[in-house]
Design a protein that fits this description.
Strands 2, 3, 5, 6 and 7 form a five-stranded antiparallel beta sheet that branches. Strands 8, 9, 10, 11 and 12 form a five-stranded antiparallel beta sheet that branches. This protein has two domains: 77 residues, Sandwich (Immunoglobulin-like), CATH 2.60.40; 93 residues, Macroglobulin (MG2) domain (Immunoglobulin-like), CATH 2.60.40. The chain is 0% helix and 56% strand. It has 192 residues and is mainly beta. The chain contains no helices and twelve strands.
Length: 192
């Protein structure tokens, strides 16, 4: 089965009002148990574009993680079985690029910080999105939304302003990089 599958779940809230990240795990249950995919997101859905074999049982789960690293696994584990497929030739998709995301510098920042990341691995072009979020998980600004070649070394700068060009207040912020469906995030501090 090589069609995008969208996993959706209900939003949860942190009693202290902090940001929530979600970790999605997809496991093959039969014929042989193994972990297929794990990703982090702040959204309440995730689109999986990988291959799922015919006549196999899979299980997926969601874990909510607050800013202090406390984790809570969903009480439900969701299972599904793919149907039998015949006469289909399968060509494995190219492997996802390896991503190395550096800590922003300077950090703490006053007026400008630089975010560097490297894409390595199989050649091609992949979608890349880089966004800044506040400590409550609200979008502050989109720094990059494009497609980048692999391999590539990329840099984005944040001037401490939101989408409207207004200065953001002092505090903790998170920058989140999305590359070909995988998510990476790091924390930065803005001092005014």
């Amino acid at each position: 089965m090589k069609a995008p599958i969208t996993f959706k779940w209900r939003k949860t809230t942190d009693p202290q009002g902090g940001a929530i990240n979600y970790r999605i795990n997809l496991r093959q249950i039969s014929p042989q148990p193994c972990c297929l995919f794990s990703a982090m997101t702040t959204d309440t859905f995730l689109v999986y574009t990988g291959y799922l074999g015919p006549s196999k049982t899979y299980e997926w789960s969601v874990t909510a993680i607050d800013v202090d690293g406390h984790e809570r696994l969903s009480k439900d584990l969701f299972r599904f079985t793919t149907t039998t497929t015949t006469g289909v030739t399968y060509t494995p998709p190219p492997s996802a690029p390896q991503v190395l995301m550096a800590q922003s510098r300077p950090n703490p920042m006053r007026s400008l910080t630089r975010i560097d990341f490297t894409l390595a691995g199989s050649a091609g072009v992949v979608p890349v999105v880089l966004r800044i979020y506040d400590a409550q998980g609200r979008l502050v600004r989109t720094l990059m939304e494009t497609a980048e070649p692999v391999p590539a070394q990329c840099t984005a700068n944040w001037d401490g302003k939101n989408e409207k060009g207004e200065k953001s207040g002092s505090g903790i912020y998170y920058y989140r990089l999305e590359v070909a469906g995988a998510h990476f995030s790091k924390r930065l501090i803005l001092l005014r």
